[in-house]
Design a protein that fits this description.
With about 250 residues, this protein is mostly helical. It is about 70% helix and about 0% strand.
Amino acid sequence: MLANLVVLLAYVALLRLQKHEWARTVRDWLPQALMVLAYKEMGWFAPTTRTSRFEHTWIVWDRILLNDMHGRSLIEFMGPVLPAVLEFCYALVYAVPPITMLVIYRAGLRRQADTLLTIYLLGLFLSYAQFPFWPSEPPRTVFPGQDLPTVHTFLRTFNLSIVGGYGIHTSVFPSAHVSGAFAAACAIAHLLPRNRLLVSTYFAYAILVAIATVYGRYHYAVDAIAGMFIGILAFPIGISLMRISRGSTA
């Protein structure tokens, strides 16, 4: 609660100082730090008892993808190359917000920072809001030792340390990693539509994140699919909210 009060007071101060350029810049970057706070606070809704009923349903589809359709074998066909790429993409998710904001700044679209933040934060928060309704744990913990990658890289060790030390136990559905990646891709496609290489890179990255979450057993396939839809849905909702906001201040 103290952290929330500090955040509220910080925004009150920034509103009073918004005539200064440095205050407007801080306002662009501060929400990125608050994403971590919002995620951790969803841990308040973690259930005291679990039945794992969702997980036992979802794992069936994962095993079809990874085993029956040879998804794991295809990923590991070239040894550690693609598994390492997937783990790198998964780890890079945490840097997507500042990287994307830098892209916007470098493109001379500083005034569009609100649009980026609205779309991206919606991609995250629409996933966070679902957590209490789908109490679940990741497949690597509910089904220990089962369906795991057979290739282990140092990047996987890093990712496991992050999710193990800083994860919450509320839900894994939908995947906020995936929804955030797709929301960022949609925002870039909207703000820089002529830069086809950049747009393609963002969407390719989002797809790799979705694959990484399932292959690494951080999420179930349904988590990744739901995250993709939420991330894409965040775009029209965010644009509508921005239009309403601009119309009310016109």
